[in-house]
Structures are given as structure tokens and as C-alpha cells.
């Protein structure tokens, strides 16, 4: 199987490991996340934030998402536990109602699988939600590891989740790739010594991806295989 030019330049062959983010990289989960955030806000007596606003908050994990929503709504910190609980319960029951796969995700996963490249799903989403989402989109079988934001002691931008997977397959960090959509993914990759690819269609929190110095910034996953 021919090694794509970009990967051959980086790794002199296929990477020894590929770690992929979930939200904003493989799936657009904001429509369902926004509904859960708005439900939690309204339960606390606040106005809904709306999907467009919630989209700018996603990327740092569920707890941070609710913290940002509460700050926007000027809710007292005393309501944090209730808001977070309401968010989690609502989101659990509406995980994939409006969530969609981004283009060419399955093609990317199939290509790496055919090449025998180990893949890990590394997300800051609570781990209880990860498997149901992957099963819904029939992606579970592609990943040797599924790490949520609470799986290890640290989450992205810490390099710990990436290095955990890297050490498991006895790979060299310089021969591994992180694919994500945000500064959080890029910082984790840089700290771990991984190459990084960032997608422009994801959740950037207002950061100019081109300013980060990633190895590749792309509009589509398939650009990796040109």
C-alpha cells in the first residue's frame, strides 16, 4: 500500500501511532451539546445561550463548558454542581440526535486500518459518552484505545494521554501523529513530541490555527493522503 507523500516526508513511511480528537475533528457535536447547555441554563433560571455561542466554548471539556456558560449567564458559583448535573443528564439522553460525522472520517479511519496503523481516540469529553457515540457511528472497531477527559489523571493539553498510548505500543513520539482541531490538541501534540494536523472546520475558540505552527492545517481530512 503506497505511503502518502506527506506521511512519507514526516515518518519515512506510515506513522507508528495516530491519535485523533473527537469533537470538532470526527464529529460535529455542538447541536446536541448546545441543547444540553441551554437546558442546564434554563433549569437555573437563565436564558439559553444558543448554538452559535456554545460553539465558541467547546473544546476544553464538559466542566469548562458549563463554567463558561454560567459565567456568560452571570449565574452564582453555588449553582455549578446542579448545572453540571443537569447538563450531563440531558446530554446523556440526547447524545446523537443532531450530531453528525464530518466528511471523509470513515475513509481516513479505513485507510489507517488497512495500513496497520494503531489508532487512539483521545478526547476531553467525559469517558461515559465516548463509547456510545462511537458505537452510534460504527467507529468503535477502529480504535485500540478510547481515552476520555477523565480516563487518566490529566487530559489535553497535557501530553499524558498521547504518551500513554505511545508507550503502550512502544512507539517513538517523533513517529506519531495527533489529528485535532484546536490549540488544545496542538499543545498536547507539541508537549508529547508528536507531529500535529489541525482541521479548520472544527472548534478553534477564536484561535488562528495557522499561527500555532502545526505541521499541517487542512480543510479536509483527505488532504493528508494527497
Would you give an account of this structure?
- With 226 residues, the protein is an alpha/beta fold.
- The protein folds into two domains: 5-29 and 99-225, Rossmann fold (3-Layer(aba) Sandwich), CATH 3.40.50; 30-93, DNA polymerase, domain 1.
- The chain is 40% helix and 12% strand.
- It is built from nine helices and eight strands.
- The protein has helices spanning 5-11, 30-43, 51-55, 62-73, 80-93, 105-114, 127-136, 160-168, 183-192; strands at residues 17-20, 27-28, 100-101, 119-122, 145-147, 176-180, 195-199, 216-218.
- Strands 5-4-1-6-7-8 form a six-stranded parallel beta sheet, sandwiched between helices. The protein has a two-stranded antiparallel sheet with strand order 2-3.
- The radius of gyration is 18 Å and the shape is elongated.
- GO terms for molecular function: phosphoglycolate phosphatase activity.
- Its cofactor is Mg(2+).
- Keywords: Carbohydrate metabolism, Hydrolase, Magnesium, Metal-binding.
- This is phosphoglycolate phosphatase.
